[in-house]
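Data card: per-record layout.
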Amino acid sequence: MTPLKLIVAPSLEPLTLAEVKLYLRVDHDDEDEVVTRCAVAARQWADGPEGFLGRALIDQTWELTLDRFPLREIRIPLPPLLEVINVFYDDPGGVQQIMDPSDYSVDRVGQPGWIVPVGSWPTPLDAINTVRIRFRAGYVDTSFSPAVGAVPEDIKAALLLYAGTLFDTRETHVVGQSVTAAPWSAEQLLRRRRVEVPLA
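The structure for this 200-residue chain is written out next.
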């Protein structure tokens, strides 16, 4: 079972309906539902802990659960890291505690981001799921108020390629054509941004 739990899902998609329709050269509204589903499926293929990229695309909140504190840093999956909201742990008496943010440092520059204690980590209860880190991740442009999504263009291009493949091969069988899970060109665009963060 994954030690990641989705707390707050993204509130929007990296591709707008208008962007996908322009790419597909669809100039009517009759197939908007189909186009939207293809765009969502493309995002799901790339986004999140089970996605091809291993990244968070749009601002979303997750909780990472561990059985203990590590010796030093905790690497946070699903870059880019926006914010560590809280570090929770169950103390030896089984009572949930929230670490003071002054007791740890957060590095949001590296990918993946990570947190390290100022001094040493507290002693948690000797049990499973006793440490929980709640964090926000995703691409965000903070020059706007409120902030908006800022997914890099190469990622959006790959999502458009995949959405286009899904749209063009909607039928259960296309004569003379083999349909794979994702087009090779889309995977190549994303490969340099792909990350794998071990979930300790």
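Known properties of this structure: Residues 153-168 form the longest helix (16 residues). The longest strand covers residues 81-90.

See the next section for split statistics.
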